[in-house]
Amino acid sequence: MTDLAYIDDSNFLSHSTGHIQAMTPISNTFDQDTILDGQAFRDLPLLVVTKGAIGLKHTLGDGRQTISVLFLEGDVLDLRQYLSASGKLACVLPVTAFLYSSEHFKQKEQDNTKFHIDQTSNRARQQLYAAQHCVDLARKSAVEKLASFIFECRKRQQLGRHLTVSLRLRRADIADYMGLRAETLSRAFAKLRKHQFIEYNNADEIHILNEPALRQLANGKFA
Amino acid sequence: MTDLAYIDDSNFLSHSTGHIQAMTPISNTFDQDTILDGQAFRDLPLLVVTKGAIGLKHTLGDGRQTISVLFLEGDVLDLRQYLSASGKLACVLPVTAFLYSSEHFKQKEQDNTKFHIDQTSNRARQQLYAAQHCVDLARKSAVEKLASFIFECRKRQQLGRHLTVSLRLRRADIADYMGLRAETLSRAFAKLRKHQFIEYNNADEIHILNEPALRQLANGKFA
DNA sequence: CGAATAGTTGAGTAGTCTCAAAACAGGTGG
DNA sequence: CCACCTGTTTTGAGACTACTCAACTATTCG
Fold first, then answer.
1. Which residues does A contribute to its contact with B (CB < 8 Å)?
2. Number of other CB atoms surrounding residue B128 within 10 Å
3. Which of B62, B66, B81 sits opposite A135 (nearest CB)?
4. Which chain B residues are closer than 8 Å to A78 by Cβ?
5. Non-local CB neighbours of B91 within 8 Å, separated by 6+ positions
6. B78: nearest CA in chain A?
7. Per-residue pLDDT tens digits of chain A, which is 223 residues long
């Protein structure tokens, strides 16, 4: 269930001719709940998520769990950076990602200006998301956290002003990410539904019914 | 009290001969509670803190405050990145910092390998601090948050295993950073003192009396 | 010294957590 | 097709923590 992911030849060769091609990154898929072991990716430490979600998961001494950072479609992730982190990188959804060696990545940044700009701005964006996430965690109530999470999902999926948002993560993972217990999160969903802020028929896809109100809630007005 | 900081010629000229020298960054000082307006630093957006602390401060609709990120001695800060952030960069202590233009900074990175490595690793470290901070905020109790904060202070001040740590920030700012009310934080201090985990005579300097216990508390063991 | 700011203490309340159990969804085998 | 199993989500009741508001003490600075 939580197997460590190791890169072996069968993975490598599936998409290459045996040697790493300069401009063809290696695409890999990982099952849900796979732990990405940084050590195992020593040679291909740069990962660009193309589908799914990776979370940096931490477990406190008594079992409390947190997901501190989420890497979604389009996000760059330098596995070397997280070797010394207190958490583990876990696929919270089935993931497909491109893997790059350090040199390969640098090369591609040099050769492809757009790629370079994309990656740089992605890194900057990730810092902003982290800061915003701290704000969400620090002083917001459960419903406010959920409202914020819905907008974060919409924004990071680049859905513009769409009123239908796919949350994709499991409730338990959303709870870990927003610093709540799954039960509390469930009650927050129920409250938003009851007050006609959102509507949903399944766990994944939610419809925003009253965007201004939801926005204000997320921003902490009328607590 | 919360004046916006603008760079004017008097600031510029104090350390240069009128033109920005290629290799002499401009050192500036800012009073406590100054707000750094990104717009005003258009031409010198890169800031390296040499003393004091800058916090990214957010205010929710009903007045709740949070400091999501702290920039301490040695930290690099790209003011452009935070133009679109929901918070304001505020000096939570009197600050001195070097200011660089984008070109100047790049140049220095090219010319000075050590500088380049320092800045890059600083950026990576900041991401780790942000992730750890999310863990601290998400599921820890007040005393656990405080214990974590003490260790974060020690680590970021590179005090090694020193048992005396200067917290430097005001209680209210620590509270904003750790997602607590000042009253709750004060009670957390009292509890740590009462249980002989720490001791202190003034608000700033605290002594760790029982490091293993404090460490375990910070890590969420024996909640 | 008095005013202003910063930090602490106390009592009551609101909100989240805990634990337990029930409802629901998806897949498997009879 | 249905009973069954497993994993996920929801609901309920009670405990506990952090918040609120208010008053009080300590410190800083004219």
1. 56, 58, 60-62, 64-66, 68-69, 78, 81-82, 84-87, 124, 126-128, 130-135, 137-140, 176, 178-179, 216, 219-223
2. 18
3. B66
4. 124
5. B30, B31, B32, B33, B34, B35, B36, B52, B53, B54, B55
6. A124
7. 344 454 444 344 334 343 444 567 889 999 999 999 988 999 999 999 999 999 999 999 999 999 999 999 999 999 999 999 999 999 999 999 999 999 999 999 999 999 999 999 999 999 999 999 999 999 999 999 999 999 999 999 999 999 999 999 999 999 999 999 999 999 999 999 999 999 999 889 999 999 999 999 999 986 4
Nucleotide nearest to B183 (CA to C1'): C8
Residue with tokens 């005090």, as numbered in its chain:
B159
User: Out of A124, A130, A216, whose CB is closest to B130?
Assistant: A130
List CB contacts (< 8 A) between B56 and chain A.
Answer: 131
**pLDDT (0 to 100) of residue B222:** 67
Distances (CA, A) of A92 to A85, A88, B78: 18, 11, 31
Distance, in Å, from the CA atom of A140 to the CA atom of A179, rounded to the nearest integer, reads 10
CA–CA distance, B223 with A74 (Å, rounded to integer): 38
Q: Which nucleotide lies at the shortest CA–C1' distance from A170?
A: D8
The pTM for the full model equals 0.90
Whether residue A139 and residue B222 make contact (CB cut-off 8 A), yes or no, is no
| Contact positions of strand C to protein Cβ (< 7 A) | 6-11, 15-20, 25-26
